[in-house]
Amino acid sequence: MRPLINRSPLPGMALSAGITLTLLSLVVLLPIGALLLRGANAGLPTLWTEVNTPRIWGALYLSFRLSFIAALINLVFGVALAWVLVRYRFPGRRLLDAAVDLPFALPTAVAGIALTALYAPNGAFGSIARDLGFKIAYTQWGILIALIFVGLPFVTRTVQPVVEEIEREVEEASATLGATRAYTLRRVVLPMLTPAALTGFALSLARAVGEYGSVIFIAGNIPLKTEIAPLLIVIKLEEFNYTGATAIGIAMLLISFAMLLLINAIQVFSRRRIGYV
Amino acid sequence: MSDTPHIQNRHRPVTTETPAFRAALILVVVLFLALLLFAPLVAVFAEALSKGTVEAVKSLANPEAASAIKLTLIVAAVAVPLNAIFGIAAAWFITKYDFRGKALLITLIDLPFSVSPVVAGLCLVLTFGANTAVGGWLVAQGYPIVFALPSIILASMFVTFPFVARELIPVMIEQGRAEEEAALTLGASGWRIFFTVTLPNIRWALLYGVLLCNARAMGEFGAVAVVSGKIRGQTATMPITIEMLYNEYLSVAAFSLAAVLALLALLTLTLKTLLEWRFADQLAAAHRP
């Protein structure tokens, strides 16, 4: 068996290990452990009773369904955007490239009130929709827009480096063999982008399921219609129903872990299939 | 298109799309970004200045906004350096030594990225809340954690925990251990090795990580909303104050404060982009497979 730690001449191992493990435990592991411990103390039947209400199922289903649709839209536009940013030259390209990270940099509460101001019935875009007989803010459409916003950079940023790596020779070979450009894109380029695109999709999905700040302003928060799962945790805490909050928290934690596994599985699968991610 | 490439337009390389297709695709993505990214950004400033610049500036000068700005700066001033120290220590530990469980450790460090901020806040309430053993004892000693500054700092640290470590680890893996080991054989002490050999190699990656960590720490809403208690003038950070003002229909005040955070986001993006252009080879993005 391999030793726990190989001896190394470089100093600072005890210090760096100490800082790492202490802060990791205090900030991350201890709190997550407290959540799980609380759940274990309450017992599975109690947790299940707390979660098993139409309102909570409704919220979990809504969060997951809208996050999935938002991640799909981000998948399509993210791949297109990555392709455009790497392959095409046009004025403003670098500005566009830098702007893709805006959802990472802009605080979610700011994004939330800004999107609401735009898409509310009296807002710039919302009034156009109202004249056409649509309502965007305070409906599921509003939530969808907020979720697309927060997940937007993920696919682009995972696909972009892969597009940069593609060797033109492969595409030239395909063309010399008589393939049309559309056929080359579909059968040669797209398969190379798929693993990165799927990773970006899963990251965008995971982010959207847990998103709170940018959604609550635009959602309207009507139970069973536009109420997302994270908001229910906040509501339970305000009612001092800690067991209820714990139950939803554990349910969401399980969803997060499932998605982490999914991301890892995608990467392992594609490493086996094409040798890189 | 025909199956015979040689009758295609001779001036167009075979590895690109038709000009019409290119123009259409560029138009689509620009429209998509304009509607989703640029419009909200413009809306923040338009709403803030809707009653004139004087109103906007006046709303920032009131005590509530001023104390929110101060609190957010304090939180960032504690949380960001602590996470930077953690990131350096974790990257050193992970890249300079061989030990079992390294993959698990990296997964645990990345964990906060996949946990909803609201769940993070909930975890802190369940750990340090007044009705828990630890929290109750600390309240009795006069040091409340939840609904007070410490929990806001802990929540901000939780959500930004992996930023610096994630940025440094790939860079330090790439650089290897040879330079540090050479310094060691020449008799340098541990600190001397770190400050004169390692730090100059990782300084831009460190700055990059700290930049992103700071932006997220100052703007965090979900996790802080759960633990702060939203006490005006005491535990309301900038994002929390924006929410309170917005819910009271004080639109100009809410958007003025939001505009300050939006400016911070723009500054962060600008510095980040400059770092990427100038020092691309020394950042993590260049070292991923």
From TrEMBL, chain A:
Gene3D superfamilies: MetI-like. It is a multi-pass membrane protein. GO terms for molecular function: ABC-type sulfate transporter activity. It comes from the Bacteria. Residues 60-263 form the ABC transmembrane type-1 domain. One of its GO terms (cellular component) is plasma membrane. Coiled coil: none annotated. InterPro entries: CysT_permease (IPR011865), MetI-like (IPR000515), MetI-like_sf (IPR035906), Sulph_transpt2 (IPR005667). Keywords: Membrane, Sulfate transport, Transmembrane, Transmembrane helix, Transport. It is found in: Cell membrane. The chain crosses the membrane at residues 66-86, 98-120, 132-155, 188-206, 240-263. Pfam families: BPD_transp_1 (PF00528). NCBIfam families: 3a0106s02, permease_CysT. The complex is composed of two ATP-binding proteins (CysA), two transmembrane proteins (CysT and CysW) and a solute-binding protein (CysP). Belongs to the binding-protein-dependent transport system permease family. CysTW subfamily. Part of the ABC transporter complex CysAWTP (TC 3.A.1.6.1) involved in sulfate/thiosulfate import. Probably responsible for the translocation of the substrate across the membrane. Part of the ABC transporter complex (TC 3.A.1.6.1) involved in sulfate/thiosulfate import. This is Sulfate transport system permease protein CysT. It comes from Cypionkella aquatica.
Automatic annotation (TrEMBL), chain B:
Pfam families: BPD_transp_1. It comes from the Bacteria. One of its GO terms (cellular component) is plasma membrane. Keywords: Membrane, Sulfate transport, Transmembrane, Transmembrane helix, Transport. It is a multi-pass membrane protein. InterPro entries: CysW_permease, MetI-like, MetI-like_sf, Sulph_transpt2. It is found in: Cell membrane. Part of the ABC transporter complex CysAWTP (TC 3.A.1.6.1) involved in sulfate/thiosulfate import. Probably responsible for the translocation of the substrate across the membrane. PANTHER family: SULFATE TRANSPORT SYSTEM PERMEASE PROTEIN, SULFATE TRANSPORT SYSTEM PERMEASE PROTEIN CYSW. This is Sulfate ABC transporter permease subunit CysW.
